[in-house]
Automatic annotation (TrEMBL):
<dbReference type="InterPro" id="IPR042099">
    <property type="entry name" value="ANL_N_sf"/>
</dbReference>
<keyword id="KW-0547">Nucleotide-binding</keyword>
<feature type="domain" description="AMP-binding enzyme C-terminal">
    <location>
        <begin position="401"/>
        <end position="476"/>
    </location>
</feature>
<comment type="pathway">
    <text>Quinol/quinone metabolism; 1,4-dihydroxy-2-naphthoate biosynthesis; 1,4-dihydroxy-2-naphthoate from chorismate: step 5/7.</text>
</comment>
<dbReference type="Pfam" id="PF00501">
    <property type="entry name" value="AMP-binding"/>
</dbReference>
<feature type="domain" description="AMP-dependent synthetase/ligase">
    <location>
        <begin position="8"/>
        <end position="356"/>
    </location>
</feature>
<keyword id="KW-0474">Menaquinone biosynthesis</keyword>
<dbReference type="InterPro" id="IPR010192">
    <property type="entry name" value="MenE"/>
</dbReference>
<dbReference type="InterPro" id="IPR045851">
    <property type="entry name" value="AMP-bd_C_sf"/>
</dbReference>
<protein>
    <recommendedName>
        <fullName>2-succinylbenzoate--CoA ligase</fullName>
        <ecNumber>6.2.1.26</ecNumber>
    </recommendedName>
</protein>
<dbReference type="Pfam" id="PF13193">
    <property type="entry name" value="AMP-binding_C"/>
</dbReference>
<dbReference type="InterPro" id="IPR025110">
    <property type="entry name" value="AMP-bd_C"/>
</dbReference>
<dbReference type="InterPro" id="IPR050237">
    <property type="entry name" value="ATP-dep_AMP-bd_enzyme"/>
</dbReference>
<keyword id="KW-0436">Ligase</keyword>
<dbReference type="InterPro" id="IPR020845">
    <property type="entry name" value="AMP-binding_CS"/>
</dbReference>
<comment type="pathway">
    <text>Quinol/quinone metabolism; menaquinone biosynthesis.</text>
</comment>
<comment type="function">
    <text>Converts 2-succinylbenzoate (OSB) to 2-succinylbenzoyl-CoA (OSB-CoA).</text>
</comment>
């Protein structure tokens, strides 16, 4: 098996007093302190009965105990099962049972939900470990000093935008090569500081904990997204890179108003699905270095990212596959031609080998379920989820294309498009729009505007004005739930 030194041990050896994590108003942990806290917790968990190979779940928001728990479990050789805090107790119970969890570490703000959850699973109150009372131990207990790249380290459930969620198994090697591929693409600077505002139970946020100990790069940890706070972190606290999704970038630009970011800020890493072109153009006008990226839980975060040199030349592209990875587009069972939309397929050492208790992926490439195309230079453009595609009169319609157009309308804050049954065409698109304060929009105005950019069969046939879009914990639109949002002003 391929073996490397434990990455936190290595950073303790290389730079023990360097800042590892900043959190709170004026608090931080050095790599030495992060190592000490993680090792003490690992020994405490062992005394509580946690052993190598156990599946230990974490139900937690973004708090400093989260990375300490993650590293503690790696010192034991236990598997961390990261749970989405937005799920209901019933949904959490399904995942705890499915993952065969033996202990649950709980955020003190989520204790009530945890208690309701364990009523439905084979766990008792003795199997709950509270983050505000974590067990620690200073005894001499042997811990893992090396990491085996083929061993499973984490399990994260797919976001469940379609069907039952499945536990994606990530090895140490998956996380290692994901971090290395990102560094080779974005580069690293002595002055880099990466801000975490994405949830750490999701692969996009979790991957930053890996970069932190693999690169030896400080991270700034926020408990939640706050546009004003993040803009201040960039302008006044030395943050150079931020990972966001589309709705976050929209709010950051809105809060920024006429201000600009300093030249030291070098990367707004934007993921979470196709991005409306008007938003990218607004960011470009403000010289915000947006690097669109493409990835999924199964690829341990990003697997393709637009390189800095192409950031403005290839606006809207997710770039090319990271150095250790390969991707292709398949249409009708063959490799698609340039600009031909098909399903994106990926392979590389950051791609998960499969799902827990499910058959592994025997194919050379992983079929992602995402639609996209490559241009004549090989740059990837992500179009939409294949399963979100609308088929109207035999024509394929991708909601993200329509959403991108409608986002160009004045007063539109957010938009989601889905299909609805139609006797004549089978399906037709309909739009759900969130308006900015004081704005108004009619179906006629939207239709007139869309005619300039879309074929007639792509223009939404109905318009619903709603207060917010349904999103999962990754802030992705859950289009199948759009009709549950109908509240007022139905056109």
């Amino acid at each position: 098996m391929n073996v490397i030194p434990h990455w936190l041990e290595k950073q303790h050896e290389l730079q023990p007093e360097a800042t590892a994590i900043e959190y709170g108003e004026h608090l931080s942990l050095s790599y030495s302190a992060l190592r000490e806290e993680s090792r003490k917790l690992a020994k405490g968990l062992i005394k509580e009965g946690v052993k190598t190979g156990d599946h230990v779940a974490l139900l937690s928001g973004n708090r400093i105990e989260f990375p300490i728990c993650i590293h503690a479990l790696s010192y034991i050789g236990a598997v961390a099962v990261c749970l989405n805090t937005r799920l209901t107790p019933e949904e959490l119970a399904y995942q705890l049972n499915d993952a065969e969890v033996s202990a649950l570490i709980v955020d003190p703000n989520l204790v009530e939900k945890a208690h309701r959850t364990i009523e439905e699973v084979l766990l008792g109150h003795d199997d709950l470990i509270y983050m505000n009372h974590l067990p620690t131990c200073n005894e001499s207990i042997e811990l893992k000093e090396q990491l085996y790249l083929e061993e499973v380290f984490t399990m994260m459930y797919t976001s469940g935008t379609t069907g039952k969620p499945k536990a994606v198994m990530h090895t140490y090697g998956n996380h290692w090569f994901s971090a290395v591929g990102s560094a080779l693409n974005l580069g690293l600077s002595q002055s880099d500081k990466w801000l975490i505002c994405l949830p750490m139970f999701h692969v996009g946020g979790f991957s930053l904990l890996m970069k932190n100990v693999i690169y030896g790069m400080p991270i700034r940890l926020l408990s939640h997204f706050d546009a004003q706070v993040i803009n201040d972190e960039i302008r006044y606290r030395g943050v150079t890179i931020v990972s966001v999704v589309t709705v976050m970038l929209q709010r950051l630009i809105l809060d920024l108003q006429q201000e600009d970011y300093p030249s030291s800020f070098r990367c707004m890493l934007l993921g979470g699905g196709p991005v409306p072109r008007p938003l990218l153009e607004r960011a470009s006008k403000k010289d915000i270095p947006v690097f669109q990226t493409y990835g999924m839980t199964e690829t341990s975060s990003q697997i393709a990212t637009l390189s800095p040199v192409d950031a403005f030349r290839k606006l809207g592209s997710a770039g090319k596959a990271l150095a250790p990875a390969t991707l292709k587009v398949i249409a009708d069972g063959r490799t698609a031609a340039a600009y031909e939309t098909g399903e994106i397929h990926v392979k590389g050492p950051m791609v998960s080998g499969g799902y827990y208790k499910k058959a592994g992926n025997d194919s050379e490439y992983l079929a992602t379920g995402d639609a996209g195309y490559l241009d004549d230079e090989g740059f990837l453009y992500v179009v939409d989820r294949v399963k979100d595609m609308i088929i109207s009169g035999g024509e394929n319609i991708y909601p993200a294309e329509i959403e991108s157009v409608i986002m160009g309308l004045a007063g539109v804050e957010e938009v989601g498009v889905t299909g609805t049954a139609d006797e004549e065409w089978g399906e037709v698109p309909v739009a759900f729009v969130v308006l900015q304060a004081g704005a108004d929009l009619s179906l006629e105005e939207m239709t007139t505007y869309c005619r300039q950019y879309l074929a007639s069969y792509k223009i939404p046939k109905r318009l619903f004005i709603i207060s917010e879009l349904p999103r999962n914990a990754s802030n992705k639109i859950v289009r199948r739930k759009l009709f549950e949002c109908m509240e007022r002003d139905v056109y």
